Amino acid sequence: MKHLLREIPPVHELQVSDKFQQVMKKFDQPAQNITKIIQNQINAIREELIQETLSKQLFNNYSLIDIIWQRVDGQLADFAQEKITNVINATGTVLHTNLGRARLSNQAIDHIVKVARGYSNLEYNLKEGKRGSRHDIIEGLLKEATGAEAAMVVNNNAAAVYLILRALAKEKEVIVSRGQLVEIGGSFRVSSIMEESGAHLVEVGTTNKTHLYDYEQAITEDTRMILKVHTSNFKTIGFTESVETDSLVSLANQHQQLIVYEDLGSGSLFDFKSVRIGDEPVVREIINSGVDLVSFSGDKLLGGPQAGIIAGKKEWIAQLKKHQLARVLRVDKMTLAGLETTLRTYLAGGAEEHLPTIRDIIKSREIMEDQANQFVHQLNHDLLDLQIEESFSQVGGGTMPDVEVPTVLVTIISKGITAQQLANRLRQHVPPIVVRIKDDKVVVDFRTIELREMEDLVAGFLDVVTKNNVTNETT
Predict the structure, then answer these.
(1) Any idea what DSSP says for residue 281?
(2) Which domain, by its residues, includes 348?
(3) CA-CA distance, 219 to 216, in Å (whole number)?
(4) Which of 168, 218, 239, 330 is buried most deeply by CB count within 10 Å?
């Protein structure tokens, strides 16, 4: 292979070829970009020839120049492809962390586009004609939706936890039950974030049982806060006991300037208990218990954009707004626009109809069954074995870990390829289709499939199966 090193063409020779002009036109890239990519690919091929790692089989059908242009074309195609794109979520997991969690309502999307397209009053008071605060845009709606005295927004709930601990409990003691020292996705641990914030962790109770007297005995003159962490991503069952929020509030009221803060993690404004789904507390219920502060996510059960929402007593929110980290962790105009419209949807009583997260979680069996029947009817193909089944979906996103919601799905066996191969090809399709695999079958769960996606879903399966059949016939 090393003898081919002498055949590597110089860059200037490739620059004057017709292929160079074709590539420029195809990918709409300037000459200097293409020249740089050519140089990179030539260097890579030279190294592979030296190391003898380049496949000899390639040269049965292609010349060295052909291989260079194939690689240049491939790199430019990869560069041109959008890195973040829509996918069809056929897993049934509504708040799929890897797939972007909550989908926004059409109304929220329209508002975001409108605000992004032009200038806005992000930090301008139109009534008074002077500088305003972005906190004011959303605070009124949050107060009305949660019943809190005051509220603010940062870029996610992890940021909210950090800001609260740093601003209000730095170099002070924070009491936490051992059963609530959780770790969520991305190795985010309560103990670690507390250490970073400068607050001093005081653990009380045991993994499965913590009593009110555990908190009471741990309070010292250095104690600043009692932190209750809602275990939204796991459940401890059996011989367990924890202290209710209102009891912690009563204990804190016996001590001056002792803050009770509850990190709800997910946080819900919709009462899922009313439709017999889980036992997730509603934010207003926690506020009404008398806590000083609560924090929760915007892109989980709330069904809005990524954000960390802090609500509670005006005294503490005011201190948080003035802290230097509030500027570091602030959200942009598009997040505020999406969150504003999402909150207005709740206040107008339209969450079940307009918010995809709520709508998908409470989606009726009848709707999913109709979609499954339509899918099977339209995907009638000799190479596919399709079966409609009843099963269960997960809410996902670190919420309601013990809740399984009844669903309707279709299991698929494709002749000639394994379930994993079919899933891989569906994932690489345009648009990508992400499925589950169970018992060596591909599973399509219709809880997370919208009616507008049905045509693309069917077309994707037919395209993948047809291409596989052609491949089999020619091999």
Answers:
(1) P
(2) 106-354
(3) 6
(4) 168
The pLDDT tens digits of the residues spanning 114-131 come to 999 999 999 999 999 999
Q: What's the rounded Cα separation, in Å, for the pair 426 and 383?
A: 15
Provide the pairing of β-strand 183-184 with 223-229: unpaired
Does residue 242 register a pLDDT over 90?
no
What does the alpha-carbon distance between residue 354 and residue 415 come to, in Å, rounded to a whole number? 40
State the Cα–Cα distance between residues 149 and 309, nearest whole angstrom.
14
Q: End of a domain among 354, 376, 398?
A: 354
Check whether residue 273 and residue 376 sit in a common domain: no
Does residue 434 share a domain with residue 325?
no
User: CB–CB of 72/37 below 8 Å?
Assistant: yes
Please check whether residues 326 and 408 belong to one and the same domain. no
Q: Which amino acid is at 339?
A: L
**DSSP secondary structure letters along 205-252:** S-SSB--HHHHHHH--TTEEEEEEE--TT----SS-B---HHHHHHHH
Summarize pLDDT for 333-350 with one digit per residue, the tens.
999 999 999 999 999 999
Please write the tens of the pLDDT for every residue from 87-97. 999 999 999 99
Peptide bond into 431 cis (omega under 30): yes
Q: Are residues 210 and 324 in the same domain?
A: yes
Q: What is the count of structural domains for the chain?
A: 3
Contact 66, 17 (CB under 8 A): no
Q: Is residue 183 part of a domain?
A: yes
pLDDT digits (tens, 9 = 90+) for 44-66: 999 988 888 888 777 878 888 99
d(CA 34, CA 30): 7
Q: State how far the Cα of 54 lies from the Cα of 47, in Å rounded to an integer.
A: 9
Q: Is residue 101 part of a domain?
A: no
Instruction: Dig out the tokens for 184 from the structure.
Output: 């969520």
Q: pTM to 2 decimals? A: 0.87
Region 281-289: mean pLDDT is 95
The yes-or-no verdict on residue 190 having pLDDT over 90 is: no
Instruction: Please give the backbone phi and psi of residue 470, each rounded to the nearest 5 degrees, phi first.
Output: -65, -40
